[in-house]
TrEMBL record:
Protein name from the UniProt record: DUF58 domain-containing protein
Provenance organism: Hymenobacter aerilatus
Spans through the membrane: none
Domain DUF58: start-end pairs: 42-244
Pfam short name (any one): DUF58
SUPFAM superfamilies given in the database record: vWA-like (SSF53300)
High-level lineage: Bacteria, Pseudomonadati, Bacteroidota, Cytophagia, Cytophagales
C-alpha cells in the first residue's frame, strides 16, 4: 500500500481512494443475512406459514420430509462519515501531511469501499460556520459528491456550537457513524455529539488521528508552540520537556480511549505517518 504522503502527492482524491480501497475489495466479506437470494446457504425444516415456492420438492420426494431452501442475500448499511474540520486539523506532520489531508484520504477510501459494497453513505464536515452535509445515498454518483466535498474542505475555527449540531442528532436513522478527529476540544463537545449520535443512530467508530511528531515529540531545542484554534503560544525547550510531554500525552490518550469505550464507542488511534489500512480493517470488522 502506498504511504499517505505518496497518495496525497497524486493530487487526485478519487484515484487515491481507489488505490487504497481496491486492495481490500479482493476477498471482501459482505455482511449477510439468510433469506430469499441467489446464493444457496442451507436447508431448514418447513414451518407453517413458509412460502411454499421455497420448498425443495425433490428433497421431499426422497426423504418424505419438507425442507425450505435458504439463501444468502447482502445486507445494506448506512454509513455516516464525519470529518472534524476545526483549525487544529491543520497541524502538519514531519512528512508534510496535515491531519486534514490524511482525514480526506481516509474518508474518501472508506466511502469508496462502502459504496462498492452497496451501502448508503452520508458525509458531514464539522465546521464552526455550519455543517456541510450530504444525506445518505447508495448510488455511485454519491462518490463524486463526497470526493468533491472532501477536496474543498478547509479546516478553520473551533468545533461547532450545539445549536449547529442539532440537525445531526435530530435524525433517528440507524447507521454506522465513523468520526475522524484529533479530539482537541474545550469542553467535551465532540464526546457530547458522538454520545447523542450513539443514542439516535447506533454504532459509532471513533478514529482518533494524531501526527507522528506529536506522538514521538520529534522537536529539538527551543520551540514555540501555537494553539491553532485559540492563538495561544507556549515556549519551551523540547529536549528538556520531552519526557513530561509524553507522559501527559499518553495519559490523555488512555483517558480518551477509556472515555470513548465507556460511552459505547469503538475507538482506534491512528497516526498520519501510517498507511490507511488499519482504519479500513476497523470498518470491515463492523461491516
Amino acid at each position: 500500500m502506498l504511504s499517505p504522503e505518496q497518495l496525497y502527492a497524486l493530487r487526485n482524491l478519487p484515484l487515491a481512494a481507489k488505490q487504497v480501497a481496491e486492495g481490500f475489495l479482493h476477498g471482501q466479506h459482505l455482511s449477510r443475512r439468510r433469506g430469499v437470494g441467489m446464493e444457496f446457504s442451507q436447508y431448514r425444516p418447513y414451518q407453517p406459514g413458509d412460502d411454499l415456492r421455497r420448498l425443495d420438492w425433490r428433497l421431499a420426494a426422497r426423504s418424505d420430509r419438507y425442507y425450505i431452501r435458504e439463501s444468502e442475500v447482502d445486507t445494506s448499511l448506512t454509513v455516516h462519515l464525519l470529518l472534524d474540520a476545526t483549525a487544529s486539523m491543520n497541524h502538519r506532520d514531519d512528512n508534510g501531511l496535515s491531519k486534514l489531508d490524511y482525514g480526506r484520504l481516509l474518508l474518501a477510501a472508506l466511502a469508496y469501499l462502502a459504496v462498492n459494497q452497496g451501502d448508503a453513505v452520508a458525509l458531514t464536515i464539522l465546521r464552526p460556520d455550519g455543517l456541510q452535509h450530504l444525506p445518505p445515498r447508495a448510488d455511485p454518483r454519491q462518490l463524486t459528491r463526497i470526493f468533491h466535498t472532501l477536496e474543498n474542505a478547509t479546516a478553520t475555527g473551533r468545533f461547532p456550537a450545539a445549536a449547529e449540531l442539532a440537525p445531526l442528532t435530530a435524525r433517528r436513522q440507524r447507521a454506522l457513524t465513523i468520526c475522524v478527529s484529533d479530539l482537541y476540544e474545550e469542553d467535551g463537545e465532540i464526546d457530547t455529539l458522538l454520545t447523542r449520535l450513539r443514542t439516535t443512530s447506533g454504532e459509532v467508530l471513533l478514529l482518533h488521528l494524531l501526527a507522528r511528531n506529536e506522538l514521538d515529540f520529534t522537536y529539538r531545542g527551543a520551540v514555540t508552540f501555537e494553539d491553532l484554534e485559540t492563538g495561544r503560544t507556549l515556549q519551551l525547550n523540547a529536549d528538556q520537556q520531552r519526557r513530561t510531554w509524553q507522559e501527559h500525552l499518553h495519559g490523555w490518550l488512555r483517558e480518551a480511549a477509556t472515555q470513548a469505550r465507556r460511552h459505547g464507542f469503538e475507538y482506534a488511534q491512528l497516526s498520519t505517518a501510517e498507511p490507511l489500512d488499519r482504519a479500513l480493517r476497523e470498518f470491515l470488522k463492523r461491516r
